[in-house]
Amino acid sequence: MKDKLVLVTGAAGFCASRLIEELLSRGYKVRATDLEGVSLERISGYLDRIEFRAADITKPETIKPLLKDVEVVFHPAAIFSYSVPLDLLRKVNVEGTRNIIELSIKEGVSKMVVWSSVAAYGAADPKFYKLPIRECSVEEMNPAIKGKYDLSKREQEAVVVKYWEENKFPISILRPAPMYGPGSYYGIYTLFKYIKEELLSVVPSNLANYKASIPLVNVKDVAKAAIFLSEKNKGDGESYNIVDDNTLDLVETVRYIALLTNSKVEVIFPMPMKLAYYLLKLLSKWSLWEAKKLRKKVNGRPPVPYIESDLLVYLLGNFWFSNQKIKDLGFEFDYPDRRVGLIETIDWYNKNGWEKTIAIKGSEQIKEGK
What we know:
- The protein is an alpha/beta fold.
- It has a domain at 5-121 and 133-180 and 216-244 and 323-335 and 357-368: Rossmann fold, CATH 3.40.50.
- It contains twelve helices and 13 strands.
- The strands form four sheets. Strands 3-2-1-4-6-7-11 form a seven-stranded parallel beta sheet, sandwiched between helices.
- Helix 4 links the parallel strand 6 and strand 7 (171-176).
- The longest helix is centred in the N-terminal third of the chain and has 21 residues, at 86-106.
- The chain is globular.
- It starts with a strand and ends with a strand.
- Mean pLDDT is 87; it is low at 357-370.
């Protein structure tokens, strides 16, 4: 693969930066893009080895020059937030993706890999999905979907499939679970942090007995899966769940993180799930108020809340996803057992700190999907 030129969008984000690292290790030539003024801290060690150009995926005229001589486009860039308006999510996640696909077709790109999310499935209702949840089309997904971000990823996938069906443009879709790994300070990191601080230190006994699942995937496996699909030239027009082997259920995962962070988690009296959700909803509203009123603004805007209400569904549903489809193509996960990756990740936080803010200049925080 040496000398193959690829484009990586959202390059300053958590997943994209790991993707760049993996691409460089395999001998790819990397062109990378993100918003003007974005912090390049995550890719600072690679800037002498890649070609970085600022661009905005909502403005096609800034994207077109980036695609010259590019063979593969990796597109993780998106707004990952449960707090921003739906119209902004659609502008970036849906229409931004449409812009890149259309220009890639015109410029002769040979392959594209797009990041969606398991969030696109909506509510993991066992009456609707057979567990573990396997890949299905957007039309077959549960219509019950609460999150604005989740809806935007579903609509993004519909755009991708349209261009495959109408143009046969080679394109594959990743549906990663919430990603973890050294260097992440948002998304599922919030759960780790609140367990460490013992703000989520009790578990209702009925939830412990329910054996609900929480989906996770190591960010390195997401990067590897994207490259795998681009190199094998398989999976065109197909979607793939990128999730680990679900070694531990939700409560076991929480207890394991507590063990790694020297924190306490206790099983308490049973609690109706509706009441548990209501209490978490109140906590998310407080978190939103705290972000707006007590923390400093970033580029004139309030920082993202530590707990966002739509993210809480992962604590109360049985989100068990199958990863067999990509395995059947021959893909092997480096971290099928989350216990190994969590040890590495928690150790990294302990050494590098549990608090960090990366300021991003632009209309909102533009980062890869969860």
